[in-house]
Amino acid sequence: MLSEADKAALLLDKPYFIENGAHASYFEWLRSKGTNFTCYEQYMEGLSEQDIINDKIEKIRIVIYALQRPITFMYFYWTMLVFIIHKFNFKKPIMRLILYHFILRSTGNVLDKLGDLFKHYYTNENLYEGTVLLKSRCKYDEMHPLKWLITRQICSILWYVGEIIGDWYPLLRTHAVVQKNKSIWAVYITCALFNFSKIALIIIHLDYSAGSLYNKDGAYDNVKSSRFYNKYSYIQLAIIYTSFFYDVAVYIVLKKCMFHKEQYKQGFLKKFKNLSEYRMLVSAFVSAIFLPIISFSIIVKYYYQKKRGFYALDF
Question: pTM of this prediction?
């Protein structure tokens, strides 16, 4: 149970709640703690002293995990290996490209983990039967607007700009060996389409502002969220298709312009190890396997939303 002093301390947080559909500025949403102060009181009243200490330990753990994200990034060891082999010579364009890719994506991973510091956001949850509102109840773990800004908007910029820079690696490698051949334009075009699809993903995140996450009833807006993730799914599908065409274009150009018949006498594993062409072929093959599966899941999701009105199905 909260003491009278504790209850008085909680009242100091009340200005940080946006209740009853109140109009609030973008920055008021970012520093808010929820849309229902009563839910906040109920949650705090249910905490024991042990829970409070555990919460402080968890915050320290999150910071530590965030700091180690760069060395747990899946490309960390590959990046370090390339740097060592090339003696950290960042005068080479390829080396700078790899460095920028690593810095941007690992920074995004750090911020993404730090977003877990904003674990609680105190809101209503509306329960419906069809279009009829049955009741509302408290929810404590919805998306915090500041967490959305950090982990979905800022991180999207860092991740996808980093990916775009990384996507130039096959382009630059191909350009270095077949730059005088007109077929290189197929690689330029497919790379540009691949990059534009990721830019589109950044844009839709920026367009979905932190203040629009919740409706006038103080509940997370599931319908608006579903529309956002519909767009997100379509763009992700476009990313996978353009990635496939990019890999195929690089494969065809390298095969046409660079490699000789005597190289094809080697076994497949030998060719995979030595020739970029075969690594691109395997990448395109993996993409081709998953294209029908992902395409079908998006079609089914769209069907249930339009025909059945089911917006909360998790695909």
Answer: 0.83
Domain assignment of residue 220, yes or no = yes
Q: Examine residue 314 and state whether it is found in any structural domain, yes or no.
A: no
Contact present, 205 and 260 (Cβ < 8 Å): no
DSSP string, the chain: ---HHHHHHHHTTGGGB--TT----HHHHHT--BS-HHHHHHHHHT--HHHHHHHHHHHHHHHHHHHTHHHHSTTHHHHHHHHHHTTT-TTSHHHHHHHHHHHHHHHHHHHHHHGGG---BBEEEEEEETTEEEEEEEESBSPPHHHHIIIIIIHHHHHHHHHHHHHHHHHHHHHHHHTTSTTHHHHHHHHHHHHHHHHHHHHHHHHS-GGGSB-TTSBB-HHHHHHHHHHHHHHHHHHHHHHHHHHHHHHHHHHHHT--GGGGGS-HHHHHHH-HHHHHHHHHHHHHHHHHHHHHHHHHHHHIIIII-------
Answer whether residue 269 shows pLDDT above 50. Answer: no
Count of structural domains, the chain:
1
Identify the domain containing residue 237 by its residue range: 4-308
Residue 271 lies in a domain: yes
Angle between helices 155-178 and 93-114 (to 10 degrees): 160
User: Can you tell me the distance from the alpha carbon of 100 to that of 141, in angstroms, rounded to the nearest whole number?
Assistant: 34
Q: Give the number of other CB atoms < 10 A from CB of residue 164.
A: 19
pLDDT, tens digit, 9 for 90 and up, residues 12-71: 999 999 998 778 899 999 999 999 999 999 999 988 889 989 999 999 999 999 999 999
Tens of pLDDT, residues 221-264: 888 888 888 888 889 889 988 988 998 888 888 777 765 444 44
Section 108-122 average pLDDT: 96
